[in-house]
């Protein structure tokens, strides 16, 4: 299988790194980007690169477009003549883009490639992305090709388009939210007496441990109950966080990401 990646920025670069880490061969990738510096980073890993988007897509089975939302229309319009709707599948990775826009940019009066909107996150680089896939017109083998590809770099969930924005704020923006908690906890750890690097390692392992409990089927609240003994330290800490608006702030932040 050949995959073409248009855009080697933060998100495109994370997925490229994850695909290579998952064992996908460098020879199966071609990456297009207008910036030589971005291309140099992936070329060093043995991946073919070009500044020509059209050249990149011609031999691909799966074309993945990772560009800023305001550039999607121009990029799709540009590569449209070189897309083969009979054999190619297209994944558009850009927040806030609708299926109606995609159809408008790609519809030439004939069949368009089987296409889906995809929202991964930067943890794709470590094979831990939470990715949302919403079909535009992709189905069957084409949809499976997209989900299988992103399953290589984490977990994938097929959702209705109406849930893409919620998925973006919960999982893509959520990376930043989770890291902000970690950063705050590290600062607390320094105040408690640990060096910053040691505190970061402690907090990172603790967050990983908490996530592993949920992955094994536990419910968050039941796990909290296990460590909140009456009159104990944990419940005192949680109540102080809630008095400062912890849970409300998280919910408000998530909802703000929908605006």
Q: Which secondary structure elements does this structure contain, and how are they paired or packed?
A:
Blueprint: E1 3-6, H1 10-21, E2 29-32, H2 36-43, E3 48-50, H3 53-57, E4 62-66, H4 72-79, E5 89-93, H5 99-106, E6 114-119, E7 129-135, H6 140-151, E8 154-158, H7 164-192, H8 196-215, H9 220-227, H10 233-243, H11 246-256
Parallel strand pairs: 1-2, 1-4, 2-3, 4-5, 5-6, 7-8
Antiparallel strand pairs: 6-7
Which band does the percent of strand residues land in? 15-25%
Using only C-alpha atoms, the radius of gyration works out to 21 Å
Mean pLDDT: 94
Tell me how many strands there are. Answer: 8
Q: Numbering strands along the chain, what is their spatial order in the largest sheet? A: 3-2-1-4-5-6-7-8
H/I helix tally: 11
Order of helices and strands: EHEHEHEHEHEEHEHHHHH
User: Could you give a short account of the major beta sheet?
Assistant: 8 strands, mixed
Structural class: alpha/beta
Overall spatial form: elongated
Residue windows where pLDDT falls under 50 for at least 5 positions: none
Question: Could you explain the architecture of this structure?
Answer:
The model has no long low-confidence stretch (mean pLDDT 94). The protein has eleven helices and eight strands. Helix 4 runs parallel beside helix 5 (99-106), helix 7 (164-192) crosses helix 8 (196-215) and helix 7 (164-192) packs antiparallel against helix 11 (246-256). By secondary structure, it is an alpha/beta fold. Helix 5 (99-106) links the parallel strand 5 (89-93) and strand 6. The chain has helices at 10-21, 36-43, 53-57, 72-79, 99-106, 140-151, 164-192, 196-215, 220-227, 233-243, 246-256; strands spanning 3-6, 29-32, 48-50, 62-66, 89-93, 114-119, 129-135, 154-158. The chain is elongated and about 70 Å long. An eight-stranded mixed sheet has the order 3-2-1-4-5-6-7-8, with helices on both faces.
């Amino acid at each position: 299988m050949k995959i073409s990646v248009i855009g080697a920025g933060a998100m495109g670069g994370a997925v490229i790194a994850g695909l290579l880490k998952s064992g996908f061969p460098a020879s199966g990738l071609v990456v297009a980007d207008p910036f030589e510096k971005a291309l140099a980073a992936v070329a060093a890993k043995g991946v073919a690169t070009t500044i020509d988007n059209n050249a990149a897509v011609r031999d691909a089975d799966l074309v993945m477009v990772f560009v800023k939302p305001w550039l999607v229309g121009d990029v799709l319009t540009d590569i449209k003549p070189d897309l083969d709707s009979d054999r190619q599948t297209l994944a558009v990775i850009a927040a806030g883009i609708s299926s109606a826009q995609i159809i408008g940019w790609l519809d030439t009066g004939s069949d368009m490639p089987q296409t889906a909107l995809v929202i991964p996150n930067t943890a794709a680089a470590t094979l831990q992305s939470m990715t949302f896939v919403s079909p535009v017109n992709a189905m069957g083998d084409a949809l499976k090709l997209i989900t299988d590809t992103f399953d290589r770099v984490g977990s994938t969930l097929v959702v209705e388009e109406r849930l893409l924005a919620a998925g973006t704020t919960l999982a893509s923006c959520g990376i930043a939210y989770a890291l902000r908690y970690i950063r705050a906890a590290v600062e607390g750890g320094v105040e408690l007496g640990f060096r910053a690097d040691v505190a970061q390692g402690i907090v990172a392992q603790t967050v990983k441990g908490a996530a592993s409990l949920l992955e094994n089927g536990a419910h968050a609240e039941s796990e909290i109950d296990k460590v909140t003994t009456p009159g104990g330290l944990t419940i005192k800490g949680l109540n102080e966080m809630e008095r400062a608006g912890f849970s409300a702030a998280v919910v408000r932040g998530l909802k703000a990401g929908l605006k």
